[in-house]
Amino acid sequence: MTTTAAPAPTTTAPATTADRPRRRISARVRILLWLLLVMAVALASVATTTRSILLRDTDQRINNLLAQEAGEFAHFEEAGVDPETGRPFTDPARLLRVFLERQYADLDEELVGLVGRPGGTPAQIVQQREIPVALPLHRDTDARRRIFASPDSSGTLHRPSGDIRWAKVSVARYGGEPEAAFVVAFHPGREQDRADEVFRVLLAISGVALLMTIGIAWVVAGRILKPVRLVRTAAAQLTEQDLTRRIAVVGRDDVAALAETFNAMLDRLERAFGAQRQFVDDAGHELRTPITIVRGHLELMGDDPAEREETIRLVTDELDRMSRIVEDLLLLAKAERPDFVTPEPVQLAELTADVYVKARTLGDRDWRLAEVADAEAELDAQRITQAMVQLAQNAVQHTAPGQTIRIGSRAGADGIELYVADSGSGVRPQDAELIFERFRRGTARRGARGSGAGLGLSIVKAIAEGHGGRVRLRPTEGGGATFVLTLGGPRP
Questions:
Q1: Pairwise CA distance, residues 307 & 296, whole Å
Q2: What is the rounded distance in angstroms from the CA atom of residue 99 to the CA atom of residue 174?
Q3: Which of 199, 364, 422, 490 could form a disulfide with 401 if both were Cys (CB 3.0 to 4.6 A apart)?
């Protein structure tokens, strides 16, 4: 009997927090959250500040009222007379009763006269009226005793039934009369409740205003960020095969400027991808021809030594041409780097003479050094020499032996110029810009004589632009073409 072991159960590790996709908060929500926070803090600050100001004003009014009542009693005690005798008061109880009968207290104010007793608990002399508080002072024996016994002339009495702000004026003794005091008490509870009510109303209004602001801000943020969403959608839909999408620009704000910038970027990308596709197509076409030639000759090569030698020569020639194409392509790729040129002070006269000497070996032509600029400029001498020699080689290819080719340089207010002028057939107007593109040849100047890949003038253009200048084509007097490198100004 045989047994088979059951397969071990497989377990799947739970997804960790790092493996889960992070939820993104949209810019619209972030704007609303920040606005909510700022508005909430601002409105709460306004409500709190308003409550503090109301409470401060209440305290100030109570202090003034207490000081006023205490001052009036002190003045009456000093200058008042008993209406029955016409003489100064000698009885503190009589003094307090006469004064209180002439006063009218505010709604939350108590005016109380206290006379001391042998047991230490003061007796109430006069209380004008009842006030709407839970426990007024004239009914609170403990509170009267504490105020009467206090050495201070004013203060705040804290009670479970409500605080009392008070001021006291002690009445001087007359002979053996018991000690007395005039007390003005204020119950601030209603005033404080009024300030708290204002605070609550402000909070409620702030809440409503906050909700309205959030609703309006949600709509406004959506309208403002709509171009941003369009940018994101357009970017998500872009592919190398479809770069034609653009964003409608509305308004003149920063978001509209973003849309314009994005559209301009798409234009550059479309041109760059187009140029890249054209470049790849042209490069493939140019390299395909020598490869086909090499393969064909190798396949047809026989055993005859002379035939083999001729085949090897042709193959080597085509390989050299492919090598030149690759080198030119690498040079054009380097032209995109910031260190493509390394300028340094160069004497133009010496540079022009060197170019003239090197160009004379390119072909049997009537070479002439037309003029030289007696100035110094910041240039990359090797790159400029490479460009000028390329222009000279181009002139040789499109002139016959004995025809004139002039090389020269000049300095002016607008910059310096180095040129190569030939007396060949010239360039047709429709080819003036075409010939500077990669793998392109002019119809009139490119024929059986031209054996290059169409990269020479592109290299010249890249070198000129690397120096912050340009290359231009001008007609030559008497026939021919003049290629001019226009660069920056000479050094003073």
A1: 14
A2: 17
A3: 364
